[in-house]
Design a protein that fits this description.
Layout lengths: L4 E4 L2 E5 L9 E7 L6 E2 L4 E7 L2 E6 L4 E6 L6 E3 L3 E6 L5 E6 L23 H4 L11 E4 L17 H9 L18 H12 L32 H16 L2 E9 L1 H16 L6 H15 L5 E4 L4 E4 L5 E3 L1 E3 L2 E3 L2 E2 L7 H16 L13 E5 L18 E5 L3 E7 L2 E15 L5 H16 L2 H6 L1
Helix pairs in contact: 6-7, 6-8
Length: about 450
């Protein structure tokens, strides 16, 4: 035991784990354990919300909860100690190795009971303590775990949130304050520099930030805070709408034969643990379409004058939840058969609705499918999920009279809507992509011919 180590008999401190790239903190929605409660490995400790994702933090160990340092409504930093657990298996030593302190200042933190907590000071230090290097918490060999916490970007939480809301990576902003501290004005200047020379467009969310009238003058009102999911959705779609010149095209596909085959093979998907839906079939068809029309699996970079075409096919699927619309991503759709896609789609939709989805499972998509057919409607104009180039919207199928071979007969028609980034995709290309997709759904044998 070194001089700068401190023993905590039979207790292990659990820090908030890494939540994903560029995620430095999360809002605590609920604390799922209590002091003196016995927990097992993987038992949920906290429910967090960050951006568009709600998630639970599982326990890495089993034991008895001795102290809780966070509560609902607080923001917890990645690496901050969230609770202490008594494993009941001996002593655990935690060594704090302090790096050089640039401004000779001391970094402290306040524990859940209001008193300074030296073992959690480094992890829980607010981002604005930029002058001080962040100590590294490392468990001894007896604990068998270690946590390394990197130096934070010198900016207050409010500034970080402002940067996220306008789509700016704060790590790239040059701070003009003491010790390089970043202010809101620095973020604004950085955003203006990025937009220099570009065509002037309405700022994302500009209309929603306008001053509203006093609605209470005309009757009773109710006010509630905007949730993180709704705020993130609003910012994202506002930015996408402002950044992407949309063009939407519509078509219908005759899925009478496809529906009969879907019902025929549905038991096979159920036996595998999934549900054979039209969406699962569409995913497979779309992956084939993206290979035939690669500009739909690309992104345009106007700043650098380049087009980035992806040679992988990760398709996002919009999922309706009680918190709002979330878009988890199914990876390598082209390499999976329809039964495998049915199983994965069922699992990922359930995990999304039950707040079990991880942030990285909602990133990396190259195209998006959104199906509102289970709710209703005949058509809609989906918004491109930027930086993707296109999105396919599906409405409810209905029986319609179709003239075939000299007479009308009832056929099940499925409405499709394709929205594209017109900077990258011309209207004629959009029509070709949509018609090819429609014909592939009408005659899946086309996939074998094209493959």
């Amino acid at each position: 035991m070194t001089d700068d180590s401190k023993e905590f008999t039979m207790s292990t401190e659990i820090p908030l784990p890494n939540l994903g790239e560029n995620i430095e903190a999360a809002d605590v929605v609920r604390v799922l354990v209590s002091v003196n409660q016995r927990i097992e490995v993987d038992d949920p400790l906290l429910e967090l919300e960050t951006g568009k994702v709600s998630m639970e933090v599982p326990s890495p160990i089993g034991g008895v909860v001795k102290q809780i340092y966070v509560e609902a409504g607080q923001s917890a930093a990645v690496g901050a100690i969230i609770l202490t657990v008594d494993e009941g298996n001996g002593e655990v030593a935690v060594a704090i190795e302090s790096e050089a302190v640039a401004d000779d200042s001391q970094t402290t933190a306040v524990s859940g009971n209001g008193s300074p907590s030296p073992t959690t000071a480094a992890a829980a230090a607010p981002p604005e303590t930029a002058g001080a290097a962040v100590p590294r918490l490392q468990a001894s060999e007896g604990a068998g775990r270690s946590v390394a916490i990197g130096r934070p970007v010198p900016a207050a939480p409010a500034v970080r949130r402002f940067a996220r809301e306008i789509g700016i990576d704060i790590a790239g902003v040059a701070g003009t304050g003491p010790a390089g501290r970043i202010s809101a004005d620095d973020v604004k200047a950085h955003a203006k520099a990025l937009n220099a020379g570009r065509a002037t467009v309405a700022a994302p969310g500009a209309a929603s930030s306008a001053t509203l009238p006093d609605f209470s003058k005309w009757g009773p009102i109710r006010t509630e805070p905007v949730s993180n999911v709704r705020r993130s959705t609003a910012v994202h779609v506002s930015g996408a709408w402002a950044a992407v010149p949309h063009v939407t095209q519509f078509d219908k596909t005759d899925i009478t034969g496809l529906e009969a085959q879907r019902k025929r093979f549905a038991p096979k998907a159920e036996a595998a643990g999934g549900k054979l839906t039209v969406t699962a079939i569409i995913l497979k068809v779309v992956a084939a379409a993206l290979k035939k029309f690669p500009q739909f699996n690309a992104s345009i970079d106007m700043a650098n004058g380049t087009i980035i075409t992806k040679d992988y096919y990760h398709i996002g699927v919009a999922v309706d939840t009680d918190r709002g619309l979330l878009v988890p991503v199914i990876r390598d759709v082209d390499r999976k058969n329809i039964i495998e896609l049915s199983v994965e789609l069922s699992q990922i939709a359930e995990n999304t609705r039950n707040r079990k989805i991880a942030l990285d499972e909602m990133q990396g998509g190259t195209f998006t499918v959104t199906n509102l057919g289970g709710i209703g409607g005949t058509a809609f104009t989906p918004i491109v999920n930027w930086p993707e180039a296109a999105i396919l919207g599906v409405s409810r199928g209905s029986m319609e009279p179709v003239y075939r071979d000299g007479s009308f007969e009832p056929r099940l028609l499925l409405p499709l809507a394709l929205s594209c980034d017109h900077r990258l995709i011309d209207g004629a290309d959009g029509a070709r992509f949509l018609r090819w997709t429609a014909e592939a759904l009408e005659n899946p044998f086309l996939l074998a011919l094209e493959g």
